[in-house]
Design a protein that fits this description.
The protein is an alpha+beta fold and 242 residues long. It has 4 helices and 17 strands.
């Protein structure tokens, strides 16, 4: 396979990954707490309309993902267990695979009286998982993270922060895993907006513009490949890839 074809196909792969990432952002524009994602391979996209180089390349630019952790707008819900964080901290959730972190503050009470995410994972307080008997009434969360019933205070939500947000990796259900240490936020520093949730920070118009640009770049690179290689070579390569 020629260097020119390798370069061209690498560009197509990069652009396709970019398109997939844009599609995920658009699909989650209405998902509470979702943080838009991006890919860093600007060289591929910016040079997509230029002739393919004839020199040998020993390596290609790597593709690196990143997450935009800027805040989304707040949406009032009036639900006593819906809360939005004021700041860049995260709620802590207990899962079978360990602690996970989320900005999605849509919580509820399960059949066992635990405060949980809408997916059923327990939300951790500074004392761990809390449980409230039904006879004590519904759970409520205050602006300082205090969780209580009509009878008593059960605990205070545990919030954490990270020195390097790019070490967080997004997973299912708005949960993040961390490769770096989670730093507990002092009780006195917790600030929440009660009865509201944080909307996605996806900007639909911007994402659609990126999608159009990526689609055009894909078409341009595909045309360049066809000019550089014979149709017989392309058919042979296609047969090998299938």
């Amino acid at each position: 396979m020629s260097d020119k074809l390798v370069i061209g196909l690498s560009r197509l792969i990069a652009i396709q990954q970019h398109v997939d990432q844009i599609a995920r952002n658009i699909a989650n524009q209405d998902t509470s707490g979702f943080k838009s994602e991006g890919l860093q391979f600007q060289e591929y996209l910016s040079s997509a309309s230029e002739p393919l180089p004839s020199t040998n390349l020993r390596s290609l630019v790597s593709i690196k993902g990143f997450t935009d952790f800027s805040g989304g707008t707040l949406k009032a819900t009036g639900v006593a267990t819906d809360v939005a964080i004021v700041g860049k901290e995260f709620f802590v959730v207990q899962t079978p695979n360990g602690e996970r972190y989320t900005r999605r503050g849509s919580f509820a009470t399960d059949a066992n009286g635990r405060l949980v995410t809408l997916s059923g994972q327990p939300v951790l307080t500074q004392a761990g998982v809390i449980t409230a008997p039904r006879e004590e009434g519904p759970l409520a969360i205050s602006a300082d993270g205090t969780v209580s019933t009509s009878k008593r205070i059960l605990g205070q939500l545990r919030l954490v922060r990270f020195d390097d947000l790019q070490k967080l990796r997004a997973g299912d259900g708005g949960l993040f895993t961390a490769s770096g240490p989670a730093i507990d936020v002092p009780s006195t520093d917790i600030r929440l907006v009660v009865g509201a949730i944080e909307s996605s920070n996806v900007k639909p118009i911007s994402e659609m513009s990126k999608l159009v640009a990526a689609s055009n770049a894909y078409q341009n690179v595909a045309k360049l490949i066809m000019r550089e290689e014979s149709s017989d070579e392309l058919r042979k390569l296609s047969g090998q890839d299938m």
